[in-house]
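Convert to structure. Protein one:
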Amino acid sequence: MANYNNFSPFYDIFTNNVDYKARARYLISVFEKHGKKPNLLLDFACGTGSFSVQFAKMGIEVIGVDKSEGMLALAAEKNEGLKTRVLYLCQSGDELDLYGTVDGAVSCLDSLNHITDINKLEETFSKISLFLEEGCLFVFDVNTVYKHKEVLASNSYRMKKRGVECVWNNTLKEDGVTVEINLNFTYKTGLFKKETVCETITERAYTHEEIENLLNKTGFKLEAVYGENTFSPPKENSQRNVYVARAVLPKTAQESV
């Protein structure tokens, strides 16, 4: 996974079209449909904490975990004014180490696609399962193979928001599921001066079969898959799907695997 440290100052600028409040409510409704609203929630790959904040405003205790120190520095600033402050930890998925168990876990906005090594993704699932109470849910979304092949592909985009210009260039790799994304941010540093910083991100799309197999291997049972922000089955051209997985292995048994 990329560290996102160059991207972090611009992340909120270029994701300001995301309705975090509505998406957070949807995710909690998924928990309620399949069980109950969590009391202590792991927000894995939380980024700048926009989802963590929304969950905290719903009265949920939240542990936000991300690999990027830059992202977490911005997330910590959003704790200001929160009645229940979010605890942020700088960790990668395969090194996840919480202080105890949680009764719910989420990963939002295709964060898991940034784990491009399937063995690392398996380790991440295993760690999340380890710290998730038996019978509780892990709800996450992923970009689909369709999106990587047909939408991201090798396309380029140019965007400008709040005085920052972003040039976004994709390269679809030969495997047809991995996309390398090169981001160039140009912004003013003075009256006549500009600076450009770059970030390279790689995302991999996993097939449904691969995801279900990894979940089965790491102590989860797949309960449902929905199209983004719905309770309907995914369509062939779905760009992002939501997975609902239940932790089924007792922790003592799982630790010995």
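Protein two, convert as well:
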Amino acid sequence: MEIKELREKDISAIWKINQQGLPGTGEVSHEELEELLRLASFAVGIFEHDELLGFVICMPPGTQYASPNYSWFNDKYDSFVYVDRIAVSKQHRNKNIGTLLYDFVVEIAMNISAPVAAEVSLKPPNPGSMRFHSRFLFEEVGVLHHDTKSVTMLMRPTDS
């Protein structure tokens, strides 16, 4: 397995894996994924023999990204690495791919002394994702309510 930067040619594979993670990952089009890659501070995937197994897309503070979840962090914090989405293909789950991706995110965040920001769905609930984030020492810093869903806002401090 190899961690590589995501490129425009990977968008179809990213979209397919993202769809497998719904509703937790949030629905996006190919065009929206292209925009996410353009805005991202970094976007990487784990590949095996050129097959994308999982990915993470992270945003820096201060971009023009229109996500209300991202905006919540952007309004409250000056420094962070925002995990916009992380997903692993169904056939490769429970093989530590998500852990490898988060290890990569945490290392970058530590190198720039920034906390990691993420959110997990409360309504509908996503207990697996909450357990996963808990293992990475994320702490709840707020709750954001949308029309039909709610998310818990999480931060992993730089000194964790």
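The chain has one domain: 2-116. The chain has five helices and seven strands.
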